[in-house]
Amino acid sequence: MPTDIFVKRRNDSLIFFAALGALTVGSIVITKYDLIAGFTSIGKALVWGAINFYPNAHALTRLPDILEKLWETVLMSVASTTVAAIFAALLAMVGSRTTRINSFFSVIARGLASVFRNIPLVAWAMILMLAFSQSLLTGYLALFFGSLGFLTRAFIETVDEASIHAVEALRATGASYSSIILQAVLPSSLPQMISWLLFMIDTNIRDATLVGLLTGTGVGFSFDLYYKNFHFHEASLVVIAIVITIMTIEMISNYIRRIIL
Amino acid sequence: MTRVSQVPSPPQLEISHVVKNYDRAKPALNDVSFSVRKGEFVAVIGPSGAGKSTLLRCINRMTEVSGGEVRFEGVSVGRLDRNELKRLRSKIGMIFQHYNLVDRLTVIENVLHGRLGSKSTLDGVLGRYSRDEKQQAMDVITMLGLSDHVYQRCDRLSGGEKQRVGIGRALVQDPKMILCDEPIASLDPNASRIIMDHLKTFARTMQITLIVNLHQVEVALKYSDRILGINNGRLVFDGGPEELSSERISQIYETEIVAHEELPRPERVGLRARYAN
Q: Residue A145's domain spans which residues?
């Protein structure tokens, strides 16, 4: 007996929104969150920001200092992302359904990627701090592990999507595994992989600020220092510098994407 | 004309009692046996999902058989180890419905991919091709009428041109046999005719055996020396085009009662009623 598909669709969405509503209300009740106070405080925060949180002339004298720290942070993000990308590419070849050697290694590679991805960046930084204390290396490794997890996952999907047909054709010609990877898989998926890499660099510069806050390095630490000493004008300058940097990097990567894709 | 018994030499390809099960429910191939002589142009016809693609892929072991034996030039394909299998595949070209090219590479790079099976791993990895190989690729491209597109990326080509690149890639393998899986199913009639003409010409002049899966019976009748009809995993017809009466055709394409019964009853009635009007 055929069920009416339209009735089924409508019931499905009703159930979905009812569940979503129940979750929201439940969370608000349990955490005793005051909805009205929450929204009105946004206004107060904006007013406070307009009065205190802008760079003044004195803050601008600190600019060279801030830019140096920012540069350090950008370089750390780029270095950790690119190195992670190389390892992620290797893991992706093993993990992808199209190029895997066997299903055992594939599961291992996917599992590794999933573990790295699902440990939050802050947790990575905390754990690594035990071993490397407050240093650039700690931040570098935290970003490296996070990126490795994410990029492996993204690369696996890119490889699966871009090259499955060409791989079949080359296998049928009797080409060796490594030839197939270098002659078919990489040419098909490299542009998309570079696009992911650029995205990851964007994200990592943002995250490096947060990690720097914990590891006491880079521009994140500058922000923390100024902020906690009530030097809000300097702190606001740090934020503006970060935003401009990220926007610039995003524009550059968009330009690169347009050319390679 | 195409009878195997008249030929003294052993057939190039022998398929005997091949069975393929993807799952328990219903075998994709069920006890299929036939043999093919060198240089024959064999068309395989039958409804979608009958097992044509599976049959083709069992020959070069892109799919492993569940039972029975495939012999190519007297060698049992199922017994080959990895390196021997690569050597076998390098002698058998393959052409696909969706061309299966690396779209971002140029025509000549895609054609040269056909040489990878005959190269050392290092040369293959680095993409080093000899002068002779490049010349051979150029000759093939010229023969296929693609000389204006040699350095063009394949995603800029039309479907018919892409398929010609696919043929080029198979030809530079110096293959003894080419397996064609629905080579014209995504092409318009004119491009289809060009592709089929090319295949026919190469098969004749280079003595390459062709096994071509086709949807279009009239194309099979026009081009092939011999036709195999597959229905529901079974070989139901094996003979020359002249033996393929319209009665036999409808037999090949007849959907089995089993397949019908999988549909729920009311829909069957509904469908039939709609088509009756």
A: 57-260
